[in-house]
Amino acid sequence: MGTLCGFQGGPGAARIMHCGAAIVLLGLMTIFASQSFSQLLSVHPSHRYLVTQDGTPFFLVGDAGWSLIAELHDADADYYFQSRHAMGFNIVIVNLLEHMFSDNAPNNIYNQPPFTGTLFTTPNNSYFQHVDYILNSAASQGIVVLLDPLYLGYGCGNEGWCAELDNADAAAMTTWGQYIGQRYASFDNIVWLIGGDTNPGTNEKLRLHALINGIKQYDTRHLFTTHVDNSTPPLVAWSVADTSWLKINNTYISGGVSQIYTAAVTEYKRTPVLPFFLIESSYENEHSMTQQGLRAESYWTVLSGGMGHVFGNCPIWHFDGAPGWCNPSGWKGQLSGQGSWNMKYFHDLFTSRRWYNLVPDLNHKVITAGYSSNLNYVTAAYCSDSSSIIAYLPSSGTVTVNMSYVGGDSAAVWWFSPSTGVCTRAGAYDHTSRSLSPPSGSGDWVLVVDNENLYPDTINPISDVKETSVIASPQDGAYPNPFKTTVTILSRQASSVEVFDILGRRVFSEKLSPGQKTVNWTPRKLGYGMYFVRLAGSKPFKVLYVP
Description:
By secondary structure, the chain is an alpha+beta fold. It has helices spanning 68-71, 74-86, 125-140, 162-167, 170-184, 202-218, 234-237, 259-269, 291-302, 331-334, 338-351, and strands at residues 42-43, 50-51, 57-58, 60-64, 91-95, 144-148, 190-195, 224-227, 249-252, 276-280, 308-311, 358-360, 367-369, 379-383, 388-393, 399-402, 411-416, 423-429, 433-436, 445-451, 478-479, 487-490, 496-500, 506-511, 518-521, 529-535, 541-545.
């Protein structure tokens, strides 16, 4: 049976994990307070992941928003970033210049062209003021922009700027790089993304190097990565000698989903060691991709040594600027789709654990049997500090786990559903090998084994929660819900009211006087997320705190 299991992490980890409540946040984004904080990223000394300025490990949860600058008004951009923040996204891919996939490319939604005359050497200040707004809007939600200054396009074709790049000279590209480098050097929330969907040839590399050098003349603060052809590692497409500027590696696998974990392992083993992530794979609503396949992209990558994944959805990536590319239309309606919830649960699970210490189980020393192969391959990793083991099972089955890879007095076992966020406690065991099976014989699952000394079972079994969606009216038990500061709870003539967090820990209680009809609860020093109200003699119900 699913429980209100909670995950509390190490330094920098999220303290609240939403375990499967079907809460629709869209349309309520204005109640989220803006969070303005620095997201200037650097590479950790291990070269396995990125950190923010205060040293917090940055677990990369990305969204493909390629056409955002060209296609969205300011207000829609605000709405988009607020909604992505609510779902745990912290990085978004965006084209600085759109060539094809917007209604009026290369002009933006305000019909402002990026250049007033000759390409790359006559920037239009009005256009780039809109870009400034977009970057600041993202920053207000703690979101980094993976900014592509010149997307080349599939096969160096007309989807991107490859022909224009070839027709320009190195001096023009240097000028272009200098302009954007100087303009955006002070914006913390940028990672530069070079190229796009093609392996640059000799001429393209020459001009792209001029662009990069132009940026770096003014901007020495931001990291660079690249986007090359499907299935080609960046350090192969460019060669190590070409890439002193490249500080972040990635994988790009589309069409061959089972290649995702093999590509990740290749990059994990590659020298020089660079942090890497899955920059692109199959998108939601494209190429008959299943929800389980989308989840596999994320979990296979991280459990094979990666630091995150950029998810994609059609039509979100083009914001309805490329009609006919996929069947669904209306990008706002897709923001709360299952693929986005998958990413929310992915974020919540890994940030609740010391993911930055994970070491891939490449030789099956942890999962010693039942790891299968191909599309059913079980990827696993263990924390180098013996705090946790995490394994992804694409389909339900039995695996044998060497429990000695976690420390403590005993090993606590959880099963986590990556499609619902629901967790199931499966007991605590000694450190010998043990065969374990998910609570259901179907679907994909994540196995979490913890050092129970670090993650003790503090669950108060509130297993019979009333299933409600967002509560909007007083008769439903609490209002307003979601709430920002204080929630009013209707007593229904109960003798007491209690509030529990998702760990099942009581965070508030009050005995009621005879005839008392309401209780006001104002959380103190508690994180945003789901809480559970229990009136004496009644089933608990959910309230959503969004400070």
